[in-house]
Amino acid sequence: MNHTRRTLLKTLAAGAAFSTLGFPTILRAAGQRIVVIGGGTGGATVAKYLRLLDATLDVTLIEKNAIYTTCYMSNEVLSGERTLESLQFNYEGLKAHGVKIVIDEVTTIDYEAQLVRTKGGISYPYDRCVVSPGIDFRYERIDGYSLEVSEQIPHAWKAGPQTLLLRDQLQAMPNGGTVVLAAPPNPYRCPPAPYERASQIAYYLKQHKPNSKLIVLDPKPSFTKQALFEKAWTELYGYKTDNALLEWHSADQASGVVGLEVATKTAITEFGDRFPAAVLNIIPPQKAGKLAFDADLVDSTGWCPVNKLTFESTRHPKVHVIGDACMADSLPKSGFAANSEAKVCASAIHALLNGLEPESPSFSNGCYSLVGKDYAISVVGVYRLSNDGKVIESIAGSGGTSALNPTAQERLFDASYAYSWYNNFTQDVFK
Ligand code: FAD
User: Fold this and answer.
1) DSSP state of 239
2) Tens of pLDDT along 84-93?
3) DSSP state of 83
4) Distant-in-sequence, close-in-space partners of 13: CB < 8 Å, separation ≥ 6
5) Does ligand 1 have an atom closer than 6 angstroms to the CB of 37?
6) How far is the CA of 134 from the centre of ligand 1 (A)?
7) Ligand 1 closest atom vs CA 365
8) Domains of the chain, with CATH numbers?
9) Distance CA 75, CA 165 (A)
10) How far is the CA of 17 from the centre of ligand 1 (A)?
């Protein structure tokens, strides 16, 4: 399509009318039904933005829980800097945008009949469906771990009761005890978050249990923002000294956790080294949320392949997958990225419903990690679809991290930007 025609179509889409024959008519999207599954970061954003793009669309959001608890900032609950309640949102804001909210669990998608079926026994017809079910865990990859065991040995990688369980265990452990944190292999939800968690736990120990120690066991040789984290750990937690509150053991030491002994809370590594703990936090290997498997949206990787222009599943037409569950190349599995994908997806669906060609998208991601009191580090990135339309790639020269040697004021600014980001971001998603 040449540029002039594309611009014309875009202008008409933004206005009122265009038919496939070229005659003005009422927008074809009017009244079309879009069912969104999962009211987390991706799902809530796409539902809201579809309605903002076109208030005549019939948008229904189906979510299991009446209250959503953000994972972002949940590491601060562990150090006592935040309450879990401060991370919770309902769906009244989305209702005000005209999104129909259904609290129920989706069991299947009937692709032939274009119906979403729920546990509550109701079927919802769709013209387009968007799935944003988040992640699930590969418990079986850690010998001795399971959903049941996670009720004693938490992962705390979905915020809520798991976060409180881990916080309570930290509060109950003796001064002088060892906390062991098993970091996950790639790819997983929120690359910097295990290291932010390590920082927040170390911050808690420093204040309340200074004779204790945190050991991070990692199956990876390196991690995101590593230089910034290590600098903060050195300054705040005696990293790499005899009195270190925090140790990081990398893949070079074969430190991935492959098993555990529940009774003694012992993590067992690839080499067979045993790490008994007062508190054991296992963040297991991950895969797309269960519904993505039940609805045949995953491939052999355990994640959902999509057309990167529209986020339409390459396995089932008219169904789009966004957020952590989808494969989005260089874009990390983060809330920020899920929100960015959701906006691209909403715009693409709007275009498709109107018989228009979706615009080639760009994306952004930003992530703040709180490493101590009034001390945050950050990373941002900008991405676009490659010219052949196949891969989401990082734009060379874009983005970056916070300074390695910031002034005290810059550090303070980063911490205040982190809290502002949270407030603005949750407003964008849920209000
Ligand atoms: P989710 O937000 O998990 O939403 C999935 C929703 O689908 C859930 O509400 C679930 O109940 C619902 N659902 C699932 N199955 C069904 C079904 N069958 N029927 C109905 N509903 C269903 N990201 C950042 O950008 N910045 C951060 O600072 C950050 N910090 C993090 C810290 C931690 C400790 C963790 C664990 C994550 C962090 N993240 C952060 C990542 C972020 O939370 C996720 O990337 C983001 O939530 C992904 O959005 P999603 O829509 O894919 O999944």
Assistant:
1) T
2) 999 999 999 9
3) -
4) 27, 350, 351, 354, 356
5) yes
6) 5
7) 25
8) 3-134+289-430 (3.50.50.60), 139-282 (3.50.50.60)
9) 12
10) 37
